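BUG: 3D viewer hangs when loading the predicted structure for this chain

Environment: internal workstation, default settings.
Expected: structure renders.
Actual: progress bar stalls at 90%.

Input used:
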Amino acid sequence: MQMDGHAGCDVDAKRKGMTAMATTSINVRVSEARLRQLDALAEVTGCDRDYHVDEALRCYLDEDLLQLAKIEEGIRQADAGEFYTTDEVAAGVREIIAARRHDALL
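Structure tokens produced before the viewer hung:
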């Protein structure tokens, strides 16, 4: 079964005016179970394995790189002394708890 609008898998990119990027090949070992999942997804969506692997890798890298950037920023802030005191954190937690209790009573 193929879902409409997914043939070719670059429909969304074309709609956004994006151009095709140069690609290269890599070899990746996956479990047979993961490969069966990938094939099932490809069949349902009409997109090939490459498309789904590239999308999964893009999402993973975007998330990991964002997380690393936030960690680095947190370290920079801590090194610069830009952090909350224990009392400030406790006060914030008390406010959140009070607000949730209030919402629960409504």
